[in-house]
Amino acid sequence: MPLKKIVMHWSAGGHNANSSDKRHYHEIVEGDGDRVGGDHLPEANNSTSDGHYAAHTRAFNTGAIGLSMAAMSGAKERPFSKGKYPITPVQLDVFVEMVAEYADTYNIDITRENVLSHAEVQITHGVKQNGKWDITWLPGMAKPGHPIEVGDHLREMIRAKQVEIFHEDAPIMAGLNMDKFSEKLASHIGEFLKSQKA
User: Fold this and answer.
1) What is the pTM of this model?
2) Which residues of 90-122 are buried (b: 16+ CB within 10 A; e: fewer)?
C-alpha cells in the first residue's frame, strides 16, 4: 500500500529522542528543534506484514508515516498538566515544517483524513486508540482542546508552511498537486477531443 497518510504524535517522553522513539516514529523533533531520524524509512510502512516497520499507531500503520515531537512526559489530560517536558514553540515550528515536507514529498493532501493527529484517528477513521490524546495541546493553550479543532489548527499551520517553503514565488498554486492536475487535465482534453470526433 502506498504511503497516503501522516499521523502526528508527541512521544510522551522527554525532550530528547530515545531508542523507543526511533523504533516507533519515522522522524522526531526534539525540544530544541533538532530533527532525529527513526530506525525505519517511511517506505517500511508500505507493508507491515514483515514486522519491520515503525509501529506508531495501533492498527493504523500500513500506508501511514509516523512523525513525532519528543515531549509531554508526565503530562496529564485531566486535570491538565503539561508536565516538565511540554512541546516548545521552536519544536512545534520545526515539526510543522517537517510535516509539510513529508506531505509534499509523498504527495499527501493535507486533509482531516490524510494528515491527522493520533487523537483524531479514532474519531476520523473509527480505529480504537485507547484514549490517546496527542496532539490536543499546543504551546499557548491553557488546556487541551478538541482533537479535530487542534488538528485543524495544525493543518492550517502546515499548509501555510508549505506555501512558505515550496511556493514562495507562486502562492496561487500552493497546495496544488501538479501530477494530479496534469492527469486530470489530460483526461479532460481526451474527453473533449473524443466528443469533437463524435
Assistant:
1) 0.84
2) ebbebbbbbbbbbbbeeebebeeebbbbbbbbb
pLDDT at 188 over 70: no
Residue 43, SS3 per DSSP: helix
Looking at domain 5-166, its CATH architecture is 3-Layer(aba) Sandwich (3.40)
pLDDT band at 48 (very low <50, low <70, confident <90, very high): very high
Contacts of residue 164, Cβ cutoff 8 Å, sequence gap at least 6: none
pLDDT value, residue 173:
45
Q: What is the DSSP string of 95-139?
A: HHHHHHHHHHHTT---STTTEEEHHHHHHHH----TT--TTS--T
- According to the model, what pLDDT value does residue 172 have? 41
Domain range list for the chain: 5-166
How close are the terminal C-alpha atoms of the chain, in Å?
A: 39
Q: Say how many C-beta atoms besides its own lie within 10 A of residue 75's C-beta.
A: 20
pLDDT at 197 (0 to 100): 65
Q: Are strands 5-10 and 35-37 parallel, antiparallel or unpaired?
A: unpaired
Cell 506555501 belongs to which residue? 163
